[in-house]
Design goal:
By secondary structure, the protein is an alpha/beta fold. It contains twelve helices and seven strands. The two termini are 36 Å apart.
Amino acid sequence: MGAAPAGARGPSREGRDESTEDLETMDVATGLLSRARRMLPEGPKALLRRFLVRKVAPYDEHELGVYVLQRAEEFCKGRGGHPEALQAVRLRKSILRQRHLEHTSEAHQYLQTAFMPDYEQSLFEYYQQQQFLMLLAFLGYPFRGPGCLCSHVDPFLVASSRLPGIRALDYGAGIPYGLIHLLRTCPEKIESITIVDLDLVHTELSEYILSQLAPDKEITFLRITDAESVPDLGGRAFNLIYGKDIFEHVHDPERLLRVMLDRAAPSCLAYFDIRDHGAKYLQHVHPQLSHLSRVVCERSFKSDGQVGGLSEFVRNA
């Protein structure tokens, strides 16, 4: 197991586990939220939920980002690369100066689009040619300022307070900051993890980090080389399904969503980014997504507001 950096939370030597106390407090917060759902309109309810999640289960986004960068250095050594390159001043500035990174990444995508007129039919090749820029963006997420990881971590915090044990499907994880955080702070809550993502360098890094954190957990990585393909999820049943920044990148998002929902357990929490993304833009091949909420509700899920900017859906057996 990889050693946690200084400042990482762990079991208290004075008797109680700090993460256990946080989870018990989250149970109290969940009770308050249940009342709020019946009493408050959607806007204030979402604000209250976010406030309670952050207040009773705080996490240091910057420290989580530093932890992932440290694991990336170890990963580079094992891969035969040159980890000292991660200390380059220009690289560190790119990670920390987000506007510069966003402009560079967007310019690269425009250049690819100009020279790949049929890129929509070869999305994996499109992503493959920018996989290190994508990794750079993923590594920079924790350094974008307060709240920068709320959509990545808050849904997992809420789920950990409401589920006795988590059997998670994370589709298109990028770097799965939410699962990394749970495995560092309350690993006993995780029963199994299934991650589906493109067969690119960021997925290799994610697999390395999770396997180091939880070598005895059931962790499955399904790597795909076709953005339109949907892997066989076998007989797994998930009580937590998470999908962010995926549906706008595929031609048939409804098909993908239905396959994910097919593997939902009778009692399940689901978190999806299914807002409309505006006009068609670069690799956003299907930006209009709000109709997918109806697809989820057809499976006996109920819409329950938002957590971390993602739509939350709940189904109880």
